[in-house]
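From the shared-data thread, chain only:
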Amino acid sequence: MTVEYLAQHIESLIFTTEHPVTEEEIRSCLEETFETTFAEEDILNAIEQLKARYQAQEFAFELVEIAEGFQFLTKGAYHQTVGTYLRQTTKKRLSRAAIETLSIIAYKQPVAKSEMEKIRGVSCDYSIQKLLEKELVTILGRSDGPGRPLVYGTTEKFMDYFGIKSLKDLPKPKDFKAPDSEIGEAAPIEEEVQREDDKASDEGGSPVSDSGEEE
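Structure, as tokens:
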């Protein structure tokens, strides 16, 4: 096979897969198929040709580098149309609990269920099960800690789902800033609690617990 037709074979391979294909996977497939070696430079050049070709206006999709691989995705101009269709056909979305659990796993991986529950303050059994079913997280193994609990991490499908190339593209904690309209600093929790207690005392009342019972 000549380099001239290399792009077409790569195009057919990427088109038929449901997940991003890495350059290494592409090269391995081609070398086994044609029983010859391919230079990395030739493969990357062929991929760049495909990228340039699908930038043309007549195509509604493009070749994108995502999740450490390459995949055909709809162009931004058509996201609203595709989004409408997905809303019409998708019955279930991730719940808030599942998103919170997924966020903890993404940033703390590898992480055990007990640590997730310590952060969230509630059981994570159901959320973890749903995330495993959707293949957004996976079991990475066992911790070396007491009882050797299972530890979890995100999958390539997670990166594909959120449109990032790697975990390095996740927003950093410093990116989550307080609103510009906020004045001063938030008081410590202990200080806020003390203020509420003082206010209750001034009004002749008693501090009330979360359960509604007086303490």
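The domain at 96-173 is CATH 1.10.10.10 (Arc Repressor Mutant, subunit A).
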